[in-house]
């Protein structure tokens, strides 16, 4: 099989099964397909592969579509967007699959297999013990039509297998290059549990043809399916799409990616406060190398520069620290107003922002903490002290080798200077000037350290000038006096 040339008739698809949440692996595949379509003026299709009725659930489909939407990967055809090649749920295409199963039976390229699970397991064990690959033995391949009909009449359960021709098969993978397979090692594989229950390889081939899919871009774990799909396409007289297999995603320990490596569903990342721009940028570099040192790309920029030839063949390593780096960058790019809108829901859910806290004051809080945010949800922990002072040990009020008495004197001096300012004057520069008077007497460390702790209850926080500016005169004085009373 030779690769098709890239033309203006580019049609690619992402075909998730709604049997679980929308995870990073599927999202990465969706992104690469989306970008390939955009780069070449093609069509990006979402097809829901829901033939596994026992495990498919509507909530998972909704999660997938919501995740794609949040990432900005808008599909051209699919659920809620009919492009003339639907329906876009495999469960609504069963009659089409039945017709194509009939075609294979008419060509004597499919047959019913009545082997039980126990018999199949015994065959597998025997072949492996004999040094052969664990493929189907072909036991039912030669059953006479009359015997097959009799077994079906008796209600014996069966599956439908494809007669795999024994030959050397080669195809050009758009990422991996030339791949050669001896189909004799594949054996006669199952294509349907029954006429009403087609399996993945069979249904995908029929749909890819009927939907005019030009390129199938998917994970490397699908390489073993590709020869089967090419053989089925040839059996129907279809031209196979170009296949391109993306590198596997591994954890930093080089094992299969899992939750312990930080991998979550896309909407879980959203809930934690990761930005879609950061996820897009991060996912892009899980297998793509532009050949430059540049790391920051917007989705629109990627639509222009993505090239499938720049996808790496080696496995991609999932690095949470890198995702945090991207997210920190994009958070810092937000205006104060944008960040306010993004952070406010987290503060509200934590009960920290209410009608008594002005928008201006909350915006000040968020602006102060902006550079320390790795994700939006961090605002609750980082800024919580603005709303309520956490309990703290009085010992941390003391600066290094100083003592409690000295800390008390310094805080009392700060109270005196703050008292001299009117409510209207109590703001950044005036606060800074007032504390400068205290620092001239006690030194910077013995002035700012105990004041920072008194205002925030923390050893690590923004500077006391910024904190006092947000808290206002009354609340600042209240907190300082409480600290003095502790000493």
Automatic annotation (TrEMBL):
GO molecular function: ATP binding; glutamate-tRNA ligase activity; tRNA binding; zinc ion binding
Record EC number: 6.1.1.17
Binding-site list for ATP: 259
Catalytic activity: tRNA(Glu) + L-glutamate + ATP = L-glutamyl-tRNA(Glu) + AMP + diphosphate
Motif ('HIGH' region): 16-26
GO BP field: glutamyl-tRNA aminoacylation
Superkingdom of this protein's organism: Bacteria
Gene name linked to the record: gltX
Annotated compartments: Cytoplasm
Keyword annotations from UniProtKB, A to Z: Aminoacyl-tRNA synthetase, ATP-binding, Cytoplasm, Ligase, Nucleotide-binding, Protein biosynthesis
Organism: Candidatus Azambacteria bacterium RBG_16_47_10
Domain Aminoacyl-tRNA synthetase class I anticodon-binding: 338-484
Name this polypeptide is given: Glutamate--tRNA ligase
Gene Ontology, cellular component aspect: cytosol
Annotated coiled-coil segments of the chain: none
Subunit structure: Monomer.
Keyword Protein biosynthesis (UniProt): yes
Family affiliation: Belongs to the class-I aminoacyl-tRNA synthetase family. Glutamate--tRNA ligase type 1 subfamily.
Task performed by this protein: Catalyzes the attachment of glutamate to tRNA(Glu) in a two-step reaction: glutamate is first activated by ATP to form Glu-AMP and then transferred to the acceptor end of tRNA(Glu).
């Amino acid at each position: 099989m030779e690769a098709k040339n890239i033309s203006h008739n580019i049609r690619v698809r992402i075909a998730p099964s709604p049997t679980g949440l929308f995870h990073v692996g599927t999202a990465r595949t969706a992104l690469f397909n989306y970008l390939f379509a955009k780069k070449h003026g093609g069509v990006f299709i979402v097809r829901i592969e829901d033939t596994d009725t026992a495990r498919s659930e509507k909530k998972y489909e909704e999660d997938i579509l919501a995740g794609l939407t949040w990432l900005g990967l808008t599909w051209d055809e699919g659920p809620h967007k009919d492009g003339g090649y639907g329906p876009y749920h495999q469960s609504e295409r069963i009659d089409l699959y039945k017709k194509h199963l009939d075609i294979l039976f008419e060509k004597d390229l499919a047959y019913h297999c009545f082997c039980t699970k126990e018999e199949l397991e015994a065959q597998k064990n025997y072949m492996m013990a004999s040094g052969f690959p664990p493929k189907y033995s072909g036991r039912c391949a030669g059953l006479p039509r009359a015997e097959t009909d009799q077994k079906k009449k008796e209600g014996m359960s069966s599956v439908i297998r494809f007669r795999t021709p024994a030959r050397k098969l080669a195809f050009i993978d758009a990422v991996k290059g030339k791949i050669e397979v001896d189909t004799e090692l594949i054996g006669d594989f199952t294509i349907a549990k029954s006429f009403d229950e087609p399996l993945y390889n069979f249904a995908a081939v029929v749909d890819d043809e009927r939907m005019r899919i030009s390129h199938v871009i998917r994970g490397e774990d699908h390489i073993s399916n590709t020869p089967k799909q090419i053989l089925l396409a040839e059996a129907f007289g279809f031209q196979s799409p170009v296949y391109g297999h993306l590198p596997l995603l591994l954890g930093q320990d080089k094992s299969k990616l899992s939750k312990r490596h930080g991998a979550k569903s896309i909407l879980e990342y959203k809930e934690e406060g990761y930005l879609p721009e950061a996820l897009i940028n991060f996912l892009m570099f899980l297998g793509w190398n532009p050949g430059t040192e540049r790391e920051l790309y917007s989705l629109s920029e990627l639509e222009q520069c993505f090239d499938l030839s720049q996808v790496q063949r080696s496995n991609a390593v999932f690095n949470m620290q890198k995702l945090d780096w991207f997210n920190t960058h994009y958070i810092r790019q937000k205006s104060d107003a944008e960040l306010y809108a993004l952070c406010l829901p987290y503060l509200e859910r934590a009960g920290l922002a209410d009608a008594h806290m002005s928008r201006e004051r909350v915006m000040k809080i968020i602006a102060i903490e902006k550079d320390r945010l790795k994700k939006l949800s961090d605002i609750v922990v980082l800024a919580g002290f603005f709303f309520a002072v956490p309990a703290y040990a009085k010992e941390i009020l003391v600066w290094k080798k100083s003592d409690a008495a000295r800390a008390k004197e310094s805080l009392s001096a700060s109270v005196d200077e703050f008292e001299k300012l009117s409510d209207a004057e109590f703001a950044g520069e005036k606060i800074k000037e007032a504390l400068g008077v205290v620092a001239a007497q006690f030194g910077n460390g013995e002035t700012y350290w105990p004041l920072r702790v008194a205002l925030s209850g923390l050893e690590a926080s923004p500077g006391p000038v910024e904190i006092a500016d947000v808290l206002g005169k009354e609340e600042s004085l209240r907190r300082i006096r409480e600290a003095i009373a502790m000493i």
